[in-house]
Amino acid sequence: MRSLTPVEAAIAFALGGSILAVAVPEFARGLHASRLAEPVDGLKRIAAAAVSLASTTPSDPAFPPSAPLTPPEVPRGVRADDPPGVWEQPTWRALAFGFDHPHAFSFAFDSSQAADRARFRATAHGDLDGDGVLSTFEVEGEADANGSRILPGMYVDREVE
User: Fold this and answer.
1) 3-class SS at 12?
2) Domain that holds residue 40
3) How many domains is the chain built from?
4) Can you give the pLDDT at residue 133?
5) Which residues in 46-60 are b (16+ Cβ under 10 Å) and which e?
6) Which of 22, 124, 154, 160 is deepest in the core (most CB within 10 A)?
7) Exposure string (b/e) for 128-157, b if CB count within 10 Å is 16 or more?
């Protein structure tokens, strides 16, 4: 078996470096996106379920009552399993929301009812690096005589803190 010439070795080294220069950032972006999928997907599920529930009674649109931050302690830098029954609160059951696998975010649902309009805000808090500083994601919706809807946009604060 013959050895590589210096030119062949330089070409192989440059090709390997080029592949790494593309692959490592793509891997990092994919890892970053996977950490953000949980709160975004979770809030979309909550909002869609809330709007669907409010649409079932168009004459009196209302969202489920508020639900506290669940689990009450935001996981710090890890994906955590929940204690049994933590998602059994009536609002989470009405929204068909919860986790049966480890997750990194805690969720809350706040609703209010005025004479002519109901509103909700769903929130996700996470501490991805375990430093005690929280990432926050929020989505809002409303219902009135014209129907129920998810308001455009999602509030995000310190998405990758």
Assistant:
1) helix
2) 6-157
3) 1
4) 92
5) bbebbbebbeeeeee
6) 124
7) beeeeebbbbbbbbbbeeeebebeeebeee
